[in-house]
Amino acid sequence: MKPIQVGLLGIGTVGSGVFNVLQRNQEEIRRRAGRGIEITMVADLDVARARAVVGEGIQVVNDARAIIANPDIDIVIELIGGYGIARALVLEAIAAGKHVVTANKALLAVHGTEIFAAASAKGVMVAFEAAVAGGIPIIKALREGLTANRIQWIAGIINGTTNFILSEMRDKGLDFDVVLKEAQRLGYAEADPTFDIEGVDAAHKVTLMSAIAFGIPVQFDKAYVEGITKLGAADIKYAEQLGYRIKLLGITKRADKGVELRVHPSLVPAKRLIANVEGAMNAVVVQGDAVGSTLYYGKGAGSEPTASAVIADLVDIARLHTADPEHRVPHLAFQANTLADAMGTLPLLPMSEVVTSYYLRLRVADQAGVLAKVTGLLAEAGVSIDAVLQREADEVGGEGSTQTDLIILTHDTREGTMDAVIAQMQALPTVLAPITRIRKEELN
């Protein structure tokens, strides 16, 4: 059978990985796919660099639209990134009848509904395994491997930069700013790390997983997003003393009134496997009603790990290229005409309606009655206390200090209730600094 022809838009870190892995493992891939898969055309603004990667025999151009216009190209791989030109090129490729493979989670999280609808109308596939958790095949697991299950929740460490920073803060007892600079020096963090450290990258990814898990449209604009910039070394130390580790989690959960979609730092029991995922690694836990809890672990970024996922998508398309579009796996796992129905029965919940438990750290005056006043306010609000840890004043502020840290763990409480009681506690004259609140996830 004639090899399927692929055009590659962008040959940076991931693009070069795709080309190299495809060349290295071409015979193995052909045996799996049932036909050859060949990159025959590459578009990159830096033509000389692209030529150095692919060598002779492959057409290199500086105009991505030349690939889209080529009638011999069956699949377009989009590795440009971002929302702008990438969106236009993906939609143009679909309109031209090309299948699309992309690693662009930002594009799909924001414009996925439009892109998937266009692809369905045209009868082509948009594959995006590489968009979430790099080389971990979590999209295929959710779309296919767990299809018998009613998914209950997903919790993932899906940003390697922030996990590296939190691991270093815990191991070395350093504050965020210091570790961020080290992460940038080592290449784990970008010069502008905003998307990573503010939780936006993780939110793009969990938005896609949520849509696949619950059969709802992608709705990034309704996600709650909180990063790690306000975490201090003290909180990581106190969490450890209480038997927890702090991780930036992307969480989506089926609740009574709808679906939770949130990204924020979380205390996770140290005995959980996901709490022990260190450095730049990724991990995702999925809870299904039939299978129970499953864990997916591996490299969430990098040239060849991400290329592994891109090429798996190429193989899927090569296998299904001639199949009736109605018999392919739907882009978001559920049949497209059922997503609107799910939207009505499973709305995304505002953060104020989310129910979880909390870690609170209060810097308070070291005097009698402070603990009683704070716990009294919690009791009046109906917030049940799980544990209290009060530090010695000289341990916090040095010998002769007149202030101390009060750490409280709560049982499950509605977020809106916790917002109100934190405001009351913050107004106490004996509370001397902004209260630190970190959500706690038992993941059991």
Q: What does the overall shape look like? A: elongated
Q: Structural class, from helix and strand content?
A: alpha/beta
Full CATH superfamily name of the largest domain: NAD(P)-binding Rossmann-like Domain
Gap from first CA to last CA = 49 Å
Please report the number of helical segments: 17
CATH topology group of the largest domain:
Rossmann fold
Question: Could you characterize the architecture of this molecule?
Answer:
The protein folds into 3 domains: 172 residues, Rossmann fold (3-Layer(aba) Sandwich), CATH 3.40.50; 164 residues, 2-Layer Sandwich (Dihydrodipicolinate Reductase, domain 2); 86 residues, ACT domain (Alpha-Beta Plaits). The protein has 17 helices and 17 strands. Strands 7, 8, 9, 10, 11, 12, 13, 14, 15, 16 and 17 form an 11-stranded mixed β-sheet that branches. Strands 3-2-1-4-5-6 form a 6-stranded parallel β-sheet, sandwiched between helices. Strand 5, helix 6 and strand 6 form a beta-alpha-beta unit. The model has no long low-confidence stretch (mean pLDDT 93). Keywords: Amino-acid biosynthesis, Methionine biosynthesis, NADP, Oxidoreductase, Threonine biosynthesis. Belongs to the homoserine dehydrogenase family.
In short:
Keywords: Amino-acid biosynthesis, Methionine biosynthesis, NADP, Oxidoreductase, Threonine biosynthesis. This protein is of the alpha/beta class and 444 residues long. It has helices spanning 13-24, 26-33, 47-54, 64-69, 84-95, 105-122, 138-145, 160-172, 176-186, 194-197, 200-214, 233-241, 303-320, 339-345, 370-380, 393-397, 415-426, and strands spanning 4-9, 37-43, 59-61, 75-78, 99-102, 126-127, 151-157, 224-225, 244-255, 258-269, 281-288, 292-299, 355-365, 385-390, 403-410, 413-414, 436-440.
